[in-house]
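Exercise 7. Given the components listed, write out the predicted structure of the assembled complex. Treat all entries as one system.
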Amino acid sequence: MTFASFGFICFVILVVLLYFLTPRKYRWISLLVSSYAFFWINSRLLVLILFGTTVITWLTGLWIWSSNKKNSTAEKQQAAELTREELKTLKEKNKKRKRRILILGIILNLGTLVVLKYTNFVFSDIEQIAGAWGGNVSLPRINLLLPIGISFYTLQSIAYLVDIYRNKTEPDRNPGKFMLFMSFFPQIVQGPIARHHQLAHQLYEGHDFDYRRLKFGIQLMLWGWIKKLVIADRLAIPVNEIFNHYGSYSGLLVFLGAAMYGIQVYADFSGGMDIARGVAHILGIELELNFKQPYFSVSIEDFWRRWHITLGGWMRDYIFYPLSLSRPFASLSRKTRKILGPFIGKRLPSFLAMFIVYFLVGLWHGPDWKYILYGVWNGIFIVSGIVLEKAYDTARKKSRVPENSITWKLFQMVRTFILITFGRFFSRALDSGAAIAMIGASFHHWWDLSFLLDGTMTTLGLDQANWNVLLAAILLVLCVDYLHEKGVRIREAISRQWIVFRWLIYIAAVLFILIFGIYGPEYNAASFIYQQF
Amino acid sequence: MKNLLKSVVFLVLLFLAVFAVQRHFKVGTRLCFQSEAGFYEEKRGSLDGVYIGASNVYAFWQPPVAWKNHGIAVLTYSVDALPSSALKAMMIEARKTQPDALYIINLNTFKKTAATSEEMHRVTNYLNPSFNKYSLIWQLADIGNIPPADRLEYYFPIIRFHSRWSELTRNDFLLQTNGRKMGYGSSEYYKKSVNLSKNYLMTESLPEKEPEATEVLLDLLDYIEKNSVKALFVIVPQALKEEYATELNSLKKTVSEHGYPCLDLLNHYEDPGILTKTDFFDKNHTNVHGSMKFTEYLSQYLIEHYQFEDKSRQEGWDEWNSAAEKYTALISPYALPFEIEGKPRKCTMNASGLSVTKTEKQSASVKWKAAKGADGYQIYQKTGSEAWTYLDSVDADTTEYETEVLEQAGQYAYTVVPVLSKKGTIYYGSYTYNGKSITVSK
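Answer.
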């Protein structure tokens, strides 16, 4: 049951009715039932894996918290009896014990994800390496389906445990409520990755029906469906053609294919987010924004602050900071400063941490070297962006381009877009070899724009009329994103207009999706020509 | 309360907008549209009869020709590949506005009971929204084992047809019927003849076990009986396999046992003068020549058995008169005047061996073999794509004819029809349908 299916619309209607008809005190239970029902519909018995992860995380969280509490109490009690050194040793010992519990919880959670998602990838690589060395190794493969959202809720559970460890949040004592936090259906499929202190209380406190929230939620969902059904699913057609038959294409058309993929994945992912946020909004729950007009970014670093924001935030809080602020990295920083000078030397540990982060970002996207290269590509350009920042600034000043000028901003945005697009080859191509081949092919006669006018574009699976609709829809999204960038709240602006005008917009939006969306059973004109019996 | 009211009003407007837009996207075929949308144009209680069935019906029966020759208004209400399970719903729909008409049911329709997805759309897309329509959708979906979630496209056809947006034409927006009262036309219908005589099977045998379609037929008969519907069943000639031909016999027997007449032209195709060698454009459908014979035959049958009166001179039938004119003009280049007018036929007479050659003086020399039983021949000429016109008559001994000099450049076609005069009535025989042509250049 995808977000773009009629079944999902019926499901949401039932969930909303059930939620608001349930007495306020028990509304969280109706959400829990709905979330597990959603999971069951999509993944059947794999719901047991979610349940297992939830139980492990809940128990581990309580264990860490009780250990914390016990240790603090013991430390306070013994503070008067112990020397400073002895107290310090005790605290270290308690911290280590707490850390061991945390690590156990992380291993159990992450282990499930790693086994289900990465085993075959690792075994395949081992076989290839062994083969390269003349060996003949054959390892078994796991043929298990992945439960929906496992990559998301695993990170969510790890964040929960670490936040308890850091005393940032208290553990949930109610197992049922914690099950809801781990399974809330609008965000389980593709995020956003939620933090317990931000989301939990919203889920547990019952919200009253609010007509304005209902309207705004539906409008947000409509916008999500426009992006998914009109843009993303339409763009998939030429993108699939170019990437699946990459040997047949070269030049700027190949680059355009990657650019289209970038827009496709933005429309698809952010569209899904809008639908998820819209559903949550109707229920009185605010999910975190996951996209903030990413194609208005002025650098790759800026891009990752606007793209999949919650993943970036998770990586920052649970990988980057722990690494870069750790003792080994601090020690490395001191050593490299002596060798490489203050600028690079000081930053090298954080560059290394950033590299690790983007390596993991790539790996998180999928069990394939192309995804890892995708992450590494972004890591390289973030680091080089920081290193070259001064050089860019010098060049700008020498060219007398004001820093806040549209020209400079446009240059930065185009530069970022180009770099991001080249990275897309890795995430979309059939494999890393194909990605590299496509990057090379895109430079072949790159100046030749004749494919735009000679009918080539209509051989990619879309006719001229469909291209026109696509361009119009992309332009619409661009305009909306521009208004958001300027701080305009469009739904509120529309809600202040004359009722007839508002209703015309809403009806037009529904008709736009119904007519131009890519959905439903395929219509084949030939099958409707009467085959006489 | 105010918000609830606003929401309800908005939803109603939204549904109306969706229904208004989706009617331009629907596809059945143009014929389904003509039949279903055209049926709703008829005045309440005006029709003498309604002929229900699949494509056989509109290929065999031409309402504007029956109107032109006899002033009877018997409209077809037919859909391509109509499954028999939909017959009752079609009858219910038709009886909403024509409760007292004679209902002619094509028994050949019982060849199939289930519908494919495309066939379901053809049947239901152009029915007006009603409980009957939505029940029919549910019923056909049940028969076809379509999961409930996949049935939405039949209630909201835009789900299936929305991708047509780039190929919508003026016709899709205007949604006008062609004003021919389901007078059929197609290139095959006008020009094609297939020889079915080798495959044509006539049998009075019954099948070993009762056909599955009997249950559907009994349900329909039950409805007819309970509602006192005037009904006539017809079996049209088709080249059928023995299995199905025997099943039709069984169904015919069931109809008779319930006291309803069944006109079996499968086993008596010669009664209307239909020739299996030349009067079909495929194994299931007559061409224009076969259709003219069938239409005339059934018209006579209906007038004799149901006392339909000639309304052609009454006021208020302008649309039918106009349809007759339009349809006559449409088929005149392909059928001779006596065919369209339903004149008496003796189809065993045939002037075969027709040849037409151009003479040196630019006239046409027409030759043919003598037809047994003929006491004369009529010669017809067609210029280009215009209507056939009568040229001349010659006596029985003549088997060649030379025209006058053909002044204009172009294509000229000729055909010869044997005739027999008997007790003051002229009987027309068979002829070479498309004639033979010559081209004159200047």
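Discussion: The radius of gyration of chain B is 25 Å. Residues 107 and 132 of chain B are 22 Å apart (CA to CA).
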